[in-house]
Queue: 2 jobs
Job 1
Amino acid sequence: MRQVYLAATGQNRGKTTTSIGLLDGFLRRGLDTRFMKPVGQRTIIEDGLPADEDAILVRNVFGLTDLMSVMSPVHIPRGFTKAYINGEIVEDLAARIRAAHAAVTRAGDILLIEGTGHAGVGAVIGLSNATVAAMLGAPAIIVSEGGVGRPIDEIVLNASHFASQGVRVAGAIVNKVDLDAQPGIVETLERGLALHDIPLLGVLPYRPILSNPTLAMILEGVHGETVHPGPDLDRVIGGVAVGAMEPAHMLERIQADTLVIVPGDREDVILTLTTAHLTGGFDDGGRPRGAALGLVLTGGYRPRQAVLDAIRRANLFASIVHDDTYVVASEVHDLLVKTHSADVGKIEMIKALVWEHLKIDRVLEAAGPVPG
């Protein structure tokens, strides 16, 4: 069996997106494909047992049958790090990972191991990505995002940490690149990384749907009361703005398909947005110019009936939630960067995008054998 360790240069670089695409690519090649995430930072309960949410996502999307305890052996829930430092965690976590790795590699053609964050994440409990990759004998692929200098700098920095642990860096992937605005960017990145002996395995173009959730996902994520569903809950939001300023200044921040998070008692802001939606005219795409796509009304404050009627006349999505604006903004940010198994359209786009833009055969060539 071959294996490869997928790492990133930081949070929200597109590592899970890349994982889904690579797994799909391996399966299209007819390979018996396995997956594990040795250390997870975002733990949820699945079938009564703790597991990393990315491992659950991958298992559900691809119908994998390995036990969740094998695919997601170690989790770092809230308070775990402090307990570890204080000596309250006595279990040999590395042994748990090695046992899971031995179980998942008993059969199959290729194993994709997904890390968490950059090369040093997990060092606080003795399980950095570099340490785990070295322990499992897996070469690393590093995912970064857009630009030229920044991704190269980040990739080289992370590669040096992997190298310090004896891990071979098999290549790099750069995500969220505006290919239309940067002609020749692929060749530039390839040359820049080659100066450090790091192959470029592919560049993924930026697509808003891969970063932004639909209104239906917002509604599910913030657990609010629907005031008005708007014209289409499957619409993808174009951006997020917090309505914590004077209405005139608020309008300056609103672009097409913006979701506005605003306290429910800021009726001045709400009415300004509904008026703009009704009177601002339409852009070339037939959407209201300078208007919000929807509103999340925070603090549990219910606007007056006249304001609610204005929201409905403007046909804006609107939901009332009890949490304050900061908490809701944080929840929406999490939705902006995560993929969920219910995001069927997004997942299909990820598969198609990776299949088209990543060099799957080069990834397979870069994968190393499981030590034996």
Note: Residues 2-210+343-369 form a domain with the Rossmann fold fold (CATH 3.40.50.300).
Job 2
Amino acid sequence: MDLDLLTRPKPEPGPERWVTVKVVYGLPEAQIVKGYLESNDILVHLDYEALGRIYGFTVDGLGQVRIQVPESQVAEALELLEAVE
């Protein structure tokens, strides 16, 4: 088992707040959204419950993945996400 899948880096501490711009169910979809935003120079952090990832649960919010970006990039990220929906 790849341990990188079980550990996820926390956003670096700093003055900027991280804001959730989208919530998806399942890490595969979140990785696609993350890749899209990062390809447009947006910093992204995926926030999710490890238990849901380990056991594959998708009920009661355990499969939720919150896609977060720095507060200064929220408007640009939302604009990019809106363009593909």
Note: The chain has one domain: 3-84.
